[in-house]
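Narrative progress, year one. The postdoctoral researcher (J.K.) led the effort to move from monomer predictions toward full complexes, under supervision of the PI. The following entry was the first complex the group processed end to end, covering 524 residues in total.
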Amino acid sequence: MNNGTFVAVDGVTRVFPARAGMRDVHALGPVDLALSRREFFAVVGPSGCGKSTLLEIIAGLQAPTSGHVLFDGTVVVGSVPRGIGVIFQEDASFPWLTVRDNIAFGLRREGVDGRTIERRVADSLALTGLRAFADAYPGQLSGGMRQRVCIARTLVLEPRLILLDEPFGALDQQTRLLMGDELLRLWRETGATIFLITHALDEATMLSDRVGIMSARPGRFLDVVTTGWPRDRDSKIVAAPEFGSITSHLWSILRDESIKAIEANPVA
Amino acid sequence: MKHGFGIREATLVRAALLAVLVAVLEIACRTGLIQRFTMIPPSEMVVSLVRLFQNRDVLADAGQTLLSVFIALACALVAGFAMGVALYAFPRARRIADPLLTTYYSVPVFVFYPLLIVLFGLNAIPKTVIGFLYAVVVMAINTLNGLERVPFVYWKTAQVHHLSRMQTALHLILPCAGPYLFTGAKFAIAYAFVGVIGSEFILSTGGLGYRVSFAYNNFQSDVMYGVILFVLVIVVCINMALYAWERVLMERRGGR
């Protein structure tokens, strides 16, 4: 691991043990990857290639079959290290709590004092544009707003590494673009490192400093593309000529892998 | 354009329909369309109910019934919840229990009443046990339903927030399964009443069910209808309170 590496994934594989009458499933790897501090890294790949498995291994939600993950120099084993926040594709907001209480959830569990909770929740509400909805319940909000609640709940804990597993997967295209802008702004303002899993090539191109392209199962990195965007960017870059060429390049590599994935699992 | 009508209008229509039904019954009883021997006018039922409130024996019976229901219900809620959790935690046990759970309510539990009298004697225990047997499984089934509907993402969220098992249960799983637990408890209350009052009606020597049965056998229509009205008032009051509470809870969740 070199000195600038914040997250290192070294020779990670994941094999799911056989179930009755089935063979072992080699889902992932071997995968090697190094993320720098404050980097925005996206992963694209065909369905079932092990993207989410990789994210969960980095988060400490799953153990690798072989290899290891280092987060800020410490091996990730058995639990989610402090400083890592995870945002899932599914709506993980708590419908029985107000937006404010949703955001304060993690701080309360950590025993942070009331005044600090109030201040940090207020900051997080402002950062995610949810101030006007602080006392609403998630059920009264749109899907995009609920995802913002989950983002705010993660940001309030001030993570140094944010892992996002297709966070905008359930949203329409316009909302995705706007949420992408929000995410870029939050990334700049918080200084966190972001690891994003997405199916959308344009989203990966627009948001990231680098895009990792994974093969069909067992997922390995076929290529890592550097986008070369400035840090201060937004969704307007979709009009840049390089945007189309980067997205085309991603697709040219991914196309065959997607066909392989469909042939291997025609029901998916 | 406003479609349909709101809760207030629905309540008004419901109350109006009930008032019309009561008025029709009153007229039918007063004009002899329904014979006094079959049913007394609703107004006399109310008078009888008021009179019953002054009768210490009836109040003692009401106390006995409510105590049995309370004990049956409390035991059913605790045991049903524990059963639901156990079935959720042990899928093998769940596979074994599944057919039993789905056919449970086709078994007429009242047939065990004589057996329970042999076991526990002619006292309040057999009817309490029947109330418990009626209420426990519905609570278990709803607990299991609730736990099965906790999204998997909440378990992962619990890990991300470093929650212990107890914290996960208290802060995520129980609130998430709350509406199902509430439904289970609501049904359990109704079933506990059915079990206890039904048992009292059949064989017991005390309680509101026994009072109805005694009045029926002695042609005391006014007492019988007064007690029936009393039971109805209690059950309706409890259900209305639960319904109002549930509405508040569901409104908070934005109908989700």
